[in-house]
Fold:
Amino acid sequence: MKRALIIASVVALAAAPAFAESSWTVEKDTYSSTSSTSVMPETGSTVSTTIIAPTAPPPPRVEVPPPAPGPGVAWVPGHWMWHPGTAAYVWTGGRYAEPPHVGVAWEPGHWAHRPDGWAWVEGHWD
Structure:
């Protein structure tokens, strides 16, 4: 547990400049009800969070990627995330990321409908 908290702190600190530079837009969900977040540890040093939203997300925004900051990076498109505290979807803008190795492509995350609402399925390198 302590290791997961340390990793989460490092990730939050590393991501802080990106959050400060991005412009977040909140789109209020008019049919919101309750949402739940459950933490399910996986193998290794990562922790996965399942996010359940009560309604479908808005349509994705059209993003035009800026010029790549360098060679070997891939565009990771933005997506809607559910913010339980405000009962609203929040747009997270796209960004460039370095693939873990040559020959992989980014598979974007998506929202999947379930009996208990809409679940966020994380994107990954494939």
User: Anything to note?
Assistant: Confidence is low (pLDDT under 50) at residues 1-43. The CA atoms of residues 67 and 119 lie 32 Å apart.
